[in-house]
Amino acid sequence: MTDIPASIVMKLRKMSGQGMMDCKRALQEANGDIEQAMGVLRKKGLATLAKRAERETTEGTVVAWENANGRMAGIAVLRCETDFVAKSDDFVQMVEAVKRGVQQCKADEGGDRLLETSVDGKKLNDMLTGLVSRTGEKIQLVKEEYARYELDGPGLISTYIHFNGKVGTMVEIETSDEATAAADALRQTASDIAMHITATKPMSLDKDGIDPETIEQEKTIFAEQVKNKPANIIDKIVEGKMKKFFAENCLLEQPFVKDDSKSVAQVLTEAAKQAGGEAKIKRFARFEVG
Which DSSP letter does residue 208 get? Predict the structure, then answer.
């Protein structure tokens, strides 16, 4: 067996973040070649990930980032299997790396590109593999759980992460002019709407955003519920139930959590008017762990 100097083991440990014995075994397998040893450790992480591919990642953290002027923001989810790992120093450091990756990944590039983004000279994907190797858990950045917005005109972007870190939202609002976007009243309302989305979990911005199949399915369910009613009123009852369904699931129609006498759309319109202009929600993203 190759005799590996302690200084080389320490160097590999610093480079990889792996334990001393794992580094020593990797160096022995690689006959002392530190680059090959890094490859051995990476393969170990990939093997662990493959072995645990079917395991559920129901713990983790929602990560959000906004730039200083509020014209760019991003949100992503870092998942793991257990709360123990989610609270570990290694995982917390990875969360910070993901936040920096979100900052550096361009707005027009998706989750696959985020994984390939480098932070301090290391790709997030490789950093994840190393973390899997160290923890023995499945840890992942799901490409569908990533969004990054950049304004192309007057407006603002607001993010909100719930205190437990397990659910978060990003919302983009277009305004008629920059002065409206900069008004304190609108900025506070944008923040409140982001919090509202986190709490209410809307399916879409409006009716047009809901899958037609989902709408037809709901209509069928409602019709079945009232099939014993007189035929001439069934359509009206179903129509009323669908109106309630849209009010519950379409963001613009939902009763605002801070004042349920008004819809989200009404609250935003009033805030924009107070700021001297107009505003509308362009899009939103909401992610949740668990």
Answer: G
